[in-house]
Design goal:
Blueprint: H1 7-19, H2 24-38, H3 44-55, H4 64-78
Length: about 80
């Protein structure tokens, strides 16, 4: 990949990379990865549609304290306790 930028931008990036004790290439890779993770993986409308579809389903539920007690009980049984 080749990226063209003016000399001032490159100097600023080189300075940032030096501060982090890394090469410009590594700084650029890490910055691009970070930017990529910040972008939503899908459109908000699709996410909302999935949430609405899941909300129409029926799942077993209980009081949170009861659920935590049952989970803890399961852990204790696995350990032989």
């Amino acid at each position: 990949m080749q990226i063209l930028m003016d000399e001032g931008e490159f100097r600023a990036i080189r300075m940032l990379a030096r501060r982090k004790r890394m090469t410009v290439a590594e700084w650029v890779r890490q910055t691009l990865r970070s930017a990529f993770r910040a972008v939503p993986s899908s459109e908000p409308e699709r996410k909302i549609a999935r949430i609405r579809a899941a909300a129409r389903l029926s799942f077993p539920t209980a009081d949170i304290e009861r659920m935590l007690t049952e989970i803890e009980s399961g852990y204790l049984q696995e350990r032989g306790g």
